[in-house]
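[audit] Reproducing an earlier prediction to check determinism. Same input, same settings, fresh worker. If the tokens differ from the archived copy the diff job will pick it up downstream; this log only records the rerun itself.
[audit] input (244 residues):
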Amino acid sequence: MRLVALVLFVLGSPTMIAAADPLRTSRQCLVVVAPDWDAKTGVLRAFERKSSRTDWQMHGPAVPVVLGKKGLAWGRGLIRLNASPQKIEGDNKAPAGIFRLGPAFGYARKPAARWIKLAYVSLTKETEGIDDPRSRYYNKLVDRSRVAKVDWRSSEQMLRDDILYKWGVVVAHNPAGTPGAGSCIFLHVWKNFGSATAGCTAMPERDLVNLLRWLDPAANPLLVQMPRHEYEAARAKFRLPAAP
């Protein structure tokens, strides 16, 4: 029987960029710098430029963020490094690397979120983030009511009783859905500055809303997230913005 399912979005694209400058087509960049690999907090700065030939300019104020409970580990995005530590499922670490952003999601219906330029997923009680590596839907947001056969034993209910997913953006970590390499990584609303995440990057609601108003898919927005010493080493190679 033909499988009929509505998969809202794969968390990223399976295409890996091998170019020397993965930011060459980007005009919007979110930079998250953490003190070290074990850090549970960091600082986010947004940057923009008119073209690949112009310099990055900071957009808006610096924003405090919380990271994974166990710090960071190298994730799978636009660059792939065979270095340690490597992110795996359930390690409570935020992915380090360079990642595409989008779609956005939230509790509001699309008409109420028309100010968001990114593609937008309106969460319902049927929306689940699949974190079971054995599932064919691993690392995807899925509408459970439209799946012919549920093959996962573990998932996250996206429509929560709190405000953590009131607004969010998908981070395209592990876009190929490699089993066990980590899943369901988002930018989302934090609980507070003292509450680290299971691997996402979280911030105050007002700051996330400001970013959502600004992020534009036409500008190919990216997230660059690394410990300070790794970021400084990557700056010249990838022409990254200067993050004070």
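[audit] rerun output stored. Observation attached for the diff report: The two ends are 57 Å apart (CA to CA).
[audit] end
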